[in-house]
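1st attempt posting a full record on here, be nice pls
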Amino acid sequence: MPKVVANESHAPAPQDDCKGVSRGRSWGLLVTAGVGGTLVALYAVVLPFVTPALRRVCLPFVPATSTQIQNVLRMLENRSGSLVDIGSGDGRIVIAAAKMGFKAVGYELNPWLVWYSRYRAWRDGVHHNTRFFISDLWKVSFSHYTNVVVFGVPQMMPQLEKKLEEELECNARIIACRFPFPCWIPDHSTGEGIDTVWAYDLKHSRGCETKRLEISPETKS
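the predicted structure (as tokens):
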């Protein structure tokens, strides 16, 4: 009689099942860790740019145009002393002023922009004449600066105008870009549209010259 050979089915060994499950779990952990790390890194990068929009006065980062920079430098001609850029962004105004010979300082809330500004200053060879700080402009005193550059927004200008008038000396010049101050009358202006720049000499806005005449000996006699 012919022999019938039965087909035998081989079930996978229990050890093979365990290895497959273990590999699947390992890949799952790696994918989870990768996605989690990416989200954390994205959060760290995006947060400094989003945070200003959540503040009472939103001061977003909008890079200055080359025309704006040239207009600011024109308002700084024949000026001396220290300079500060309030909301310095990527540092281009501070760096341009340093190339003119100013000791220039920038205050910026976004740490990524501050670190990038420091790198740009080093790259352009003016890091010895520039300094950048991570700081809130409302918590800084600008009393020792004689030249102030402001890239502001309409909501902040009235409060900033009052702060600068209280802190600055009479020989200070304030240069406003994009938006003028509400009460001060500019002594000089240049540019058109978003590139307009207004310069305010505080001695005129405050009436410092009149006050000095009133208390001078010549006037008393």
